[in-house]
């Protein structure tokens, strides 16, 4: 059996675990903020519900019958064996999405004006519930898209005002006026001209305010075109589903139903156009023949009457029948030649392409010609539908244009071949006709004349009958037209679905948003802050030992170990003192402690002063040296006058005893920074400073040196070599991971020896302290 592989558990890095713990603690501490924010969010969710107009989703379903009907003119092509391609259902979706359909629907619904009721929070659409109607004066243009504020002053009067800007060809124009008007009387100014009439049985209260806007129907159609959703429930389906979101729902249901009507009417209009073109073409041909037929008919009748001739002889009849058959074929060829000529004219004029008539109407049965004519018609129909919804340079439209050009070229080539073939047939028939005429010429003169008249009459009669038959077929096809699409589920009020607002959802969403926002802010505050937040982070990342933790000084004094010796912060300095004494390698001679920080503000001077004081209070003789010659602070801490200091000693202007000052703390002396000098680093690296340290070691048990920040200047590096212990400070909520990395780097490189760390400003969780501890560390008790 194969040995199972050990499972490796992935754990969250310590730093991240600590930050998550801090984040959880912060959430616990700020619970009241979260509850308050959630309450505010809930209230805002309530008002959001009140403010937002209800939005409903209305829908309708259309069934598109893609199969061709036998009564359609397209059936002619099927009878010829031509395989026709039905319009894609995607074209129908494109048509329903088209600007043309939307524009026609909006204009049919008479949505030129919108009415709203204005309240404190919102404007409510009064569709089908208007308290008054506005009638535009005929012949006057009303300014579009300007909200008119109408306030009811009395039963008879109102006030209209506006202060709006309109964009006219890129130029901003201000429209502002404030006028009163009367119901039923003309209101006019340079921008508007209309009459406002009250609607019976609809109340108008004095003080009510309404908003009226004359709509730009083109802009409105574009907006609604973008909002409507037309889709197939499933691939390959003949069912088209339409959805529209509106407020109120009556507007959506009316709009969808009008869209369905206009879509179906568009299909019927297209069929009528084709049928009307066919009928018109046949009527033109009949009109040309009817006069000739009437003339030849009269001539035939008159000749028979004059010559008392009732019928032809047997020989003449045979000759006539033969000639008539030739004439019949010749007339059909002539009709075909006229059709080819008209077809070529149509191809050269795109404006007339819609008047294209099917070849079968004139008896042309060529499958290729029929297929090409049908394809060209479909391509133009697709292009027209697509042009309603896309820009002229749309790739799909450009592709259709290429297909149209190619089809027209193929069609022209086919027509030219057919014309050539027809011309050959005409030549052959002419030869046959000449032979028949020779045969007729052998007949008696009277019979020759009768034969010629009868031939002309029969030719016109047969052609007239043929055209009447074709016209009857086209008329039947036109009368039998039915829409290829049907609305099977019209939009209805009962099926409209409320999308928003939903009270419970809005209130709950407000509650959770109220929780998420402050939680997110706190999360960002914790995880994006590079500052060290806890001792756990320092313990995890630090490579050095921690000598002590200095607690937060709530008294905010410079020397809490002196002013509040029994405070918790004083106890933390005693702990640091004990640890340093324990870690000292040379317990019998003078100990030198150099206090370092990476940056300004980590509490270096505060720690130095209090550590020196607590050592002195333990019966030790301590010297505190202020080696930060650039930004000295010790005079403020000890409130001792005196300008002389270590810089004066290093320059040789003062002696050791002259720069050493006594403090109020017994056993603690101090050497201030002294007067400002140009090159502190050079002075601190001089033999004079070394002599000063040697002199101090003969007198004091401890020498505490307060240094300049290491990350900023190089002064402290000169002093670190003198120290028995180099104590680096890290301040909670102030020092960063960068400072921590800097300390680790110094320790790894060994640049500074005997490094230890003290953590400043440590916060104590009071919940972890019991009552006895609090009483024991009562800083107010009498001594």
The number of E-state strands comes to 22
Largest sheet: 8 strands, mixed
Apparent shape: elongated
Spans with pLDDT under 50 lasting ≥5 residues?
1-12, 68-87, 767-776
* Helix/strand/pairing category: alpha/beta
Looking at the overall shape, the CATH architecture of the domain at 545-773 is 3-Layer(aba) Sandwich
- The helix count comes to 24
What is the CATH third-level topology name of the domain at 545-773? Rossmann fold
- Major β-sheet strand ordering: 15-22-21-16-20-17-19-18
How confident overall, as mean pLDDT? 78
**Beta fraction:** 15-25%
Top-tier CATH class of the domain at 545-773: Alpha Beta
- First and last CA, distance: 78 Å
Give the full name of the CATH homologous superfamily of the domain at 545-773.
Answer: P-loop containing nucleotide triphosphate hydrolases
Radius of gyration: 52 Å
Helix percent band: 40-55%
């Amino acid at each position: 059996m194969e040995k199972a592989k050990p499972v490796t558990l992935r754990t969250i890095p310590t730093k991240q675990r600590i930050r998550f713990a801090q984040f959880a603690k912060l959430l616990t501490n700020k619970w009241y903020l979260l509850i308050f924010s959630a309450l505010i969010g809930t209230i805002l969710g309530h008002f959001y519900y009140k403010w937002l107009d209800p939005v409903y989703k209305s829908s309708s379903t259309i069934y598109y019958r893609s199969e061709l009907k036998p009564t359609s003119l397209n059936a002619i092509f099927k009878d010829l064996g031509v395989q026709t391609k039905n319009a894609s259902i995607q074209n129908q979706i494109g048509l329903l999405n088209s600007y043309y359909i939307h524009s026609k629907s909006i204009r049919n619904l008479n949505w030129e004006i919108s009415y709203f009721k204005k309240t404190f929070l919102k404007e409510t659409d009064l569709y089908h519930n208007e308290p008054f109607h506005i009638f535009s004066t005929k012949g006057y243009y009303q300014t579009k898209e300007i909200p008119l504020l109408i306030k009811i002053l009395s039963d008879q009067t109102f006030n209209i005002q506006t202060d709006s800007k309109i964009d006219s060809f890129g130029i901003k124009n201000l429209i502002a006026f404030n006028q009163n008007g009367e119901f039923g009387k003309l209101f006019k100014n340079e921008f508007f001209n209309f009459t406002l009439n009250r609607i019976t049985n609809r109340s108008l209260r004095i003080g009510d305010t309404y908003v009226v806007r004359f709509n730009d129907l083109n802009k409105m159609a574009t907006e609604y075109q973008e909002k409507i959703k037309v889709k197939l429930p499933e691939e390959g389906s003949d069912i088209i589903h339409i959805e529209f979101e509106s407020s109120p729902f009556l507007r959506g249901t009316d709009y969808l139903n009008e869209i369905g009507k206009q879509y179906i009417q568009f299909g019927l209009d297209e069929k009528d156009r084709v049928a009307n073109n066919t009928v018109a073409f046949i009527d033109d041909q009949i009109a040309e023949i009817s006069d000739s037929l009437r003339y030849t008919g009269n001539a035939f009748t008159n000749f028979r009457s004059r010559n008392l001739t009732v019928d032809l002889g047997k020989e003449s009849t045979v000759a006539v029948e033969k000639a008539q058959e030739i004439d019949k074929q010749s007339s059909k060829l002539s009709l075909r030649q006229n059709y080819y000529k008209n077809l070529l004219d149509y191809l050269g004029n795109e404006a007339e392409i819609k008047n294209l008539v099917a070849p079968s109407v004139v008896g042309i049965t060529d499958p290729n010609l029929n297929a090409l004519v049908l394809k060209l018609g479909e391509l133009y129909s697709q292009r027209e539908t697509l042009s309603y919804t896309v820009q002229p340079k749309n790739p799909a439209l450009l592709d259709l244009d290429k297909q149209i050009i190619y089809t027209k070229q193929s069609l022209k080539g086919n027509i030219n071949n057919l014309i050539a073939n027809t011309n050959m047939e005409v030549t052959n028939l002419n030869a046959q006709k000449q032979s028949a005429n020779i045969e007729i010429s052998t007949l008696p003169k009277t019979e020759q004349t009768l034969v010629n008249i009868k031939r002309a009459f029969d030719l016109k009669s047969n052609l007239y009958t043929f055209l009447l038959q074709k016209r009857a077929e086209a008329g039947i096809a036109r009368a039998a037209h039915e829409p290829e699409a049907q609305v099977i589920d019209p939009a209805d009020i009962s099926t409209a679905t409320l999308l928003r607002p939903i009270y419970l959802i809005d209130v709950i969403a407000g509650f959770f948003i109220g929780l998420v926002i402050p939680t997110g802010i706190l999360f960002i505050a914790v995880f994006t802050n590079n500052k060290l937040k806890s001792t756990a982070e320092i313990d995890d990342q630090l490579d050095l030992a921690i000598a002590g933790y200095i607690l937060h000084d709530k008294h905010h004094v410079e020397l809490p170990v002196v002013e509040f010796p029994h405070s918790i912060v004083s106890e933390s300095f005693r702990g640091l003192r004990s640890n340093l004494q324990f870690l000292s390698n040379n317990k019998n001679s003078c100990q030198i402690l150099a206090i370092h920080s990476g940056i300004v503000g980590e509490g270096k001077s505060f720690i130095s002063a209090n550590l020196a004081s607590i050592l002195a209070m333990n019966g030790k003789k301590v010297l505190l040296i202020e080696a930060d010659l650039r930004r000295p602070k010790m005079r403020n801490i000890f409130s001792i006058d005196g300008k002389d200091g270590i810089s004066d000693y290093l320059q040789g202007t003062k002696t050791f005893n002259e720069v050493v000052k006594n403090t109020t703390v017994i056993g603690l002396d101090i050497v201030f920074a002294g007067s400002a000098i140009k090159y502190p680093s050079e002075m601190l690296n001089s033999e004079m400073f070394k002599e000063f340290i040697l002199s101090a070691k003969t007198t004091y048990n401890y020498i505490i040196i307060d240094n300049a920040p290491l990350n900023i200047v190089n002064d402290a590096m000169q002093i670190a070599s003198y120290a028995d212990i180099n104590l680096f400070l890290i301040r909670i909520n102030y020092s960063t991971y960068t400072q921590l990395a800097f300390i680790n780097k110094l320790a790894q490189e060994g640049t500074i020896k005997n490094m230890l760390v003290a953590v400043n400003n440590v916060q104590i969780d009071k919940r972890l302290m019991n009552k006895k501890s609090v009483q024991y560390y009562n800083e107010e008790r009498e001594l």
